[in-house]
Design a protein that fits this description.
alpha+beta
Length: about 300
């Protein structure tokens, strides 16, 4: 009986017919077609997103905040002006930042030679500049150095001119010092612009000075010594029998200091009789009490 049951079950199994096979093939193609549609839709969406991003890159407004950014911005225009101005497409205006030019500072010795040459030249043009050069070569010297002449006022109310270069008062060798060939100072007081061949004399003394090497003092009267003049006051003529001996370079003759010259109230009085001159470094900014006082050297002893 068991064999018969097995046969009955086999007979009950569905048979695979050509129609069933065809339906299965159709269902498979439908699945493939759906996948293709999804993939195609994904591609379309990808292209749309990429296109939108690219369009944003070219259409988004770029903020302009500086002159350089204005130059790079599309549609900007450059105006011919000084300094130049850049105008954006929406009307924003940016001005070019121009750094101030630093004066072309010449060497002090070169400026002295230039001004001196112009002074000696017969080709000096007529006009205010020419007159200023002759009346105040120090100012022309300052201008040559790239500086500006500025008037300052002292506490007394008097005014004086200073040369200012790049915002600082010029303390180097000036035109007058170049002209005379020397200036007061010791080894630690050498001024900017001093020519390389200038030398120091009298170092460590009250009359030390820098000077050009070509100065030959010869015989001269030193500090505290009287200069010798061959002019005879009684006759009003020079005495050929007397060899004049001037003060040494950096010294000048001043009246010999007399105790009676200055009162207790610092008032100078005239002393009767002849007061002999002596050589002194008057003008070096130091009041030498041995030889100088308010009367014979007010510039140092005021």
């Amino acid at each position: 009986m068991e064999p018969q049951l097995e046969k009955t079950e086999e007979q009950n199994l569905p048979n695979e017919t050509p129609l069933n096979q065809n339906n299965n093939a159709v269902n498979g193609r439908k699945k493939i077609s759906l996948i293709e549609k999804i993939f195609a839709l994904w591609l379309i969406l990808t292209f749309l997103i990429c296109g939108y991003i690219i369009s944003l890159k070219f259409t988004t407004h770029t903020e302009v905040a500086t002159y350089d950014e204005c130059l790079k911005a599309k549609g900007s225009m450059i105006q011919e002006s000084y300094p130049q101005r850049c105008v954006t497409k929406d009307g924003q205006i940016f001005t070019q930042q121009v750094e101030p030019e630093i004066p072309n500072i010449m060497n002090a010795e070169d400026c002295y030679k230039k001004v001196q040459k112009d002074l000696e030249s017969s080709e000096c043009p007529q006009g205010a500049d020419c007159m200023a050069m002759y009346t105040d070569p120090e100012s022309i010297f300052c201008t040559c150095m790239g500086g500006e002449n500025i008037t300052k006022e002292q506490m007394s109310g008097d005014t004086y001119m200073v040369c200012v270069i790049n915002g600082e008062e010029y303390t180097g060798v000036n035109f007058q010092e170049f002209s005379q060939g020397w200036y007061w100072g010791d080894v630690d007081q050498k001024k900017p612009g001093t020519p390389d061949d200038w030398v120091l004399s009298g170092s460590g003394t009250r009359s030390s000075y820098w000077h050009k090497p070509s100065i030959d003092e010869g015989e001269c009267s030193k500090i505290g010594e009287p200069p010798v003049d061959n002019f005879d006051l009684t006759t009003g003529k020079t005495n050929p029998n007397i060899e004049p001996v001037p003060c040494c370079i950096s010294l000048k003759p001043i009246s010999k200091k007399q105790d009676a010259n200055l009162t207790d109230n610092n008032i100078c009085v005239t002393v009767e009789g002849v007061i002999n001159d002596i050589c002194s470094p008057c003008g070096n900014g130091v009041c030498d009490s041995e030889y100088e006082d308010l009367c014979n050297c007010p510039e140092d002893c005021n």
